[in-house]
C-alpha cells in the first residue's frame, strides 16, 4: 500500500515530547532522524561495534510519520499543527514545519524477507518459516526460522561460527545456556543436535515472541527451551534463575564489549569441563576478548574466523 509520508522538522531536545503528542493523536511508529550520538545502551541493543563517523549534532531532528491516504490527512495535520502551536508556548520546538512526500509501495515490516531464502550451514538447512521444504531435502536437519524483529536468521557470519562450534561440542542431553538468544536459532540447533535443555536470555523483549514462534515451527517439545528477559551480567535475579555450575555449553554471540564483562559471570555458570562458545567479535577486538576469557580462568581451545568475525571457544 502507498502511504503519505510527512516529515516534521523540530529540535532533538523536543523530539520525545513531539512524538508523544503525535501518539496522543493516534500517530504511531514515528521514525527519528537526528545526529545525536548513540548511548552505550543503544549500541548494545543495536549490535554495533564500530560506528561510522557521524556529523556534528546540530540539534535538528526530523520526525517521519505515515498516514493512510484513505484517512482525512488534512484534518489530522491541522490537529498536529494546533498541538505544535500549543507546545511552542512553553518549549522550543524549532521550525515545527511539516513537509509531505509519498512513499514507495512497500510493506515496511516484511520487506527484508525478500533477501532471506533457504541456505545451508554445512549440512544444516536453514529455511524461512514461510518457504516450502523441497522433497529432496526432507531427510536433512532442517531449522525453520522467522526472526520477527529479533536478530538471528542464521545468515550472519557470527551466527554461522557459533553453529559450527555447536556441531563440534554438543553432546546428547547437554544443558545449554544461550546468552543473547534473539530468534532462538542457536538453542534450537543445539536441541536438534541432541542437547537436553536450553535456556535463552536476551535484553530485547521482541525475542520472546520470536522464540515462541520458532519453537513451534521446529516442533521443540514443551519445557525443553526456556527464556529469560534481563541482563545476566548484573541482574541478580537472572543470575539466580540461570543457576550455578549447571551448563555443559554456553553460547554468546554478542559484541566484544558485552562479552568482556559477561565472561566471568559465565565461568560460574559452566560445569567443570563445560564449553564456552563466543562470537560477535570483530578481528580488531580478538585480543581483548581472549584476555578476558583467559583472565576469567578459562582455557582457549579454538579460535575460528569468518570474514572479519572471530569466534573464541574455551573450556572451564
Ligand atoms: C548478534 S545477536 C545474536 C542472536 C542469535 N543468538 C544469533 O546468533 O543469531 C545478539 C543478541 O544479544 C542480545 N544482547 C545484547 N546484550 C545482551 C546481554 N547483556 N544479555 C543478553 N542479551 C544481550 C541482543 O538483544 C541480541 O538479540
Automatic annotation (TrEMBL):
GO function terms (MF aspect): protein methyltransferase activity
Biological role: Methylates ribosomal protein L11.
Known EC number: 2.1.1.-
Residues annotated as binding S-adenosyl-L-methionine: 159, 180, 202, 253
Keywords: Cytoplasm, Methyltransferase, Ribonucleoprotein, Ribosomal protein, S-adenosyl-L-methionine, Transferase
Organism for this UniProt entry: Wansuia hejianensis
Pfam family for this entry, one: PrmA
Similarity comment: family membership: Belongs to the methyltransferase superfamily. PrmA family.
Protein localization: Cytoplasm
Superkingdom of origin organism: Bacteria
NCBIfam families attached to this UniProt entry: prmA
GO BP of this protein: methylation
One Gene Ontology cellular component: cytoplasm
Main location, first listed in the record: cytoplasm
Keyword Calcium: no
KW tRNA processing (keyword) present: no
Group of enzyme by EC: transferase
Catalytic reaction list: L-lysyl-[protein] + 3 S-adenosyl-L-methionine = N(6),N(6),N(6)-trimethyl-L-lysyl-[protein] + 3 S-adenosyl-L-homocysteine + 3 H(+)
SUPFAM superfamilies for this protein: S-adenosyl-L-methionine-dependent methyltransferases
Name the UniProt record assigns to this protein: Ribosomal protein L11 methyltransferase
Amino acid at each position: 500500500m502507498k502511504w503519505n509520508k510527512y516529515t516534521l522538522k523540530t529540535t532533538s531536545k523536543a523530539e520525545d515530547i513531539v512524538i508523544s503528542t503525535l501518539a496522543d493523536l493516534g500517530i504511531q511508529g514515528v521514525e527519528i532522524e537526528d545526529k545525536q550520538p548513540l548511548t552505550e545502551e543503544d549500541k548494545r541493543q543495536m549490535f554495533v561495534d564500530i560506528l561510522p563517523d557521524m556529523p556534528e549534532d546540530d540539534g535538528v531532528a526530523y520526525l517521519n510519520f505515515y498516514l493512510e491516504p484513505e484517512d482525512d490527512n488534512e484534518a489530522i495535520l491541522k490537529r498536529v499543527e494546533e498541538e505544535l502551536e500549543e507546545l511552542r508556548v512553553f518549549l522550543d520546538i524549532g521550525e515545527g514545519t511539516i513537509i509531505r512526500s509519498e512513499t514507495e509501495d512497500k510493506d515496511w515490516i516484511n520487506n527484508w524477507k525478500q533477501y532471506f531464502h533457504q541456505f545451508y550451514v554445512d549440512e544444516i538447512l536453514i529455511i524461512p518459516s514461510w518457504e516450502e521444504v523441497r522433497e529432496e531435502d526432507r531427510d536433512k536437519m532442517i531449522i525453520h526460522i522467522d526472526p520477527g524483529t529479533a536478530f538471528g536468521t542464521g545468515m550472519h557470519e557470527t551466527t554461522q561460527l557459533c553453529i559450527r562450534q555447536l556441531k563440534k561440542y554438543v553432546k546428547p542431553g547437554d544443558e545449554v545456556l544461550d546468552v543473547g538468544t534473539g530468534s532462538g536459532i542457536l538453542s534450537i540447533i543445539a536441541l536438534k543436535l541432541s542437547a537436553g535443555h536450553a535456556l535463552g536470555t536476551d535484553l530485547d523483549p521482541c525475542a520472546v515472541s520470536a522464540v515462541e514462534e520458532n519453537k513451534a515451527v521446529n516442533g521443540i517439545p514443551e519445557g525443553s527451551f526456556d527464556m529469560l528477559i534481563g541482563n545476566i551480567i548484573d541482574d541478580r535475579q537472572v543470575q539466580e534463575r540461570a543457576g550455578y555450575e549447571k551448563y555443559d555449553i554456553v553460547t554468546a554471540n554478542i559484541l566484544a564489549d558485552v562479552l568482556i564483562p559477561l565472561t566471568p559471570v559465565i565461568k560460574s555458570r559452566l560445569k567443570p569441563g563445560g564449553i564456552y562458545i563466543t562470537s560477535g567479535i570483530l578481528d580488531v577486538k580478538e585480543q581483548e576478548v581472549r584476555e578476558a576469557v583467559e583472565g576469567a580462568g578459562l582455557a582457549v581451545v579454538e579460535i575460528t574466523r569468518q570474514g572479519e568475525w572471530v569466534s573464541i571457544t574455551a573450556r572451564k
